[in-house]
């Protein structure tokens, strides 16, 4: 199945470069582009992409605000694409809030071309882009600076998980892939995927990215843990 992508970035050369790179892939089709968040929302709701590549800093409407609108659409709008944020090291706060809003992850704008192509495929498949160590650093830093969760909040919701599901959630938050979790727990990778699906369903989380945020906010994983 072809992955439909739109590119939202205020730099025309960046849009053109990304479009050329992605369109050269047999399984990816670039169906639109936009120079700012407001226009990006309009294009997305017209062409219904599977994945939106969204720059963080743009005029008119920044990527964070646009991601919120796309991922929490008004009544009557049923299409909700996956959003992959494009960022640099100096926008950590934006990245954290985008993940909380439901973005499927983020990619550094100077990442190698192969990483961009792989990221689009990963996000389109329903997974969150959380493997790079920089992602773990940003999320841990975000959790470190947030106030402690109130009693009866996220920590209480952990009680609904089985011991194995809690263990899997902890390893997700530490940045392990499904394959690495399977090796650590001596399980089949498909069994790990089943556990992750149950964790997301029980906690009411959209994807792996939100699971990581939840694990930190609930206190299951503390910033700086090995």
Characterize the structure shown:
The protein is α/β, with parallel strands linked by helices. The chain has helices at 12-23, 37-47, 63-71, 92-101, 113-124, 133-145, 154-157, 163-173, 178-185, 189-203, 208-217, and strands at 3-8, 28-34, 51-55, 82-87, 105-108. It contains 11 helices and 5 strands. A 5-stranded parallel beta sheet has the order 2-1-3-4-5, sandwiched between helices. Helix 3 links the parallel strand 3 and strand 4 (82-87). Helix 3 runs parallel beside helix 4 (92-101) and helix 9 packs across helix 10. The chain is globular, with a radius of gyration of 18 Å.
Give the structure's gist in a few sentences.
51% of the residues lie in helices and 12% in strands.
């Amino acid at each position: 199945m072809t992955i439909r992508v739109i590119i939202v970035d205020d730099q025309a050369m960046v849009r053109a470069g990304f479009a050329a790179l992605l369109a050269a892939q047999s399984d990816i089709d670039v169906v639109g582009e936009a120079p700012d968040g407001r226009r990006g929302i309009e294009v997305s709701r017209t062409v219904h992409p599977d994945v939106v590549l969204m720059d963080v800093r743009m005029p008119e409407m920044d990527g964070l605000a646009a991601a919120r609108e796309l991922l929490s659409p008004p009544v009557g709008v049923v299409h909700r694409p996956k959003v992959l944020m494009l960022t640099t090291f100096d926008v950590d706060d934006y990245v954290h809030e985008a993940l909380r809003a439901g973005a499927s992850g983020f990619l550094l704008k100077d990442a190698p071309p192969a990483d961009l192509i792989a990221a689009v495929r990963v996000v389109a498949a329903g997974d969150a882009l959380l493997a790079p160590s920089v992602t773990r650093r940003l999320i841990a830093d975000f959790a470190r600076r947030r106030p402690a969760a109130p009693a009866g909040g996220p920590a209480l919701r952990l009680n609904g998980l089985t011991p194995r599901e809690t263990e899997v959630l902890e390893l997700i938050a530490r940045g392990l892939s499904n394959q690495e979790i399977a090796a650590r727990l001596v399980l089949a990778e498909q069994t790990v995927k089943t556990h992750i699906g149950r964790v997301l369903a029980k906690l009411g989380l959209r994807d792996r990215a939100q699971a990581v945020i939840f694990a930190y906010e609930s206190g299951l994983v503390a910033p700086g843990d090995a």
